[in-house]
Amino acid sequence: MINSAMKAYQQVADSSMTGRQADAACFAILIEKLQAAAMSHNAEQRMDALTEHQRLWSLIIKANALDAGVTDLEDRTLFVHLGNQAQGYAIRALLDSSLSLDPLIDIANNILDGLVEDENSVSNESEGTHNSADVVL
Q1: Backbone angles phi, psi at 14, to 5 degrees
Q2: Each residue of 74-110: pLDDT tens digit?
């Protein structure tokens, strides 16, 4: 017989996201905010979206700057460099309201696509199915 605490834990565990899913959700929210800001002439909305952008990339840079043994150096370096470039552009976009947010939206979409693709390939591998990316030429 399962006690109420165990049932509560099991419900949370069953509904909780993986790290990749949480990352993807963060990027999806960021994309929505950036797209809304890009279509609006509201300076405060633009500043809020760019501030959220900076916070997310700051966390990514901080997480990848330290070697936790989870991600190899090449990938960590790539994320830090990409984050640095994205943050630099966002600072320029904060200072110049005529600067398009499309490059930031494109980067976020590319990251989101990679997270979703990686999540799908992991679930396909666990189900024993393979896609064309699995074929080694």
Answers
A1: -70, -30
A2: 989 999 999 999 999 999 999 999 999 999 999 999 9
Phi-psi region of 128 (alpha: psi -120 to 50; beta: other; left: phi over 0): left
Cβ neighbour number for residue 29 with a 10 Å cutoff: 13
Provide CB contacts within 8 A for 61, sequence distance 6+.
Answer: 79, 80, 83, 84, 87
Distance between CA 62 and CA 113 in Å, rounded? 22
pLDDT per residue as tens digits for the range 20-71:
888 899 999 999 999 999 999 999 999 999 999 999 999 999 988 887 777 8
Residue type at position 61: I
Q: Where are the alpha helices (DSSP H) in 1-137?
A: 4-15, 19-39, 43-65, 73-95, 102-127
Length of the chain measured in residues: 137
CA 86 to each of CA 42, 50, 53, 57, 117: distance values in angstroms, whole numbers, following the listed order? 22, 10, 9, 8, 22
Question: What is the C-alpha separation between 48 and 7, in angstroms, rounded?
Answer: 39
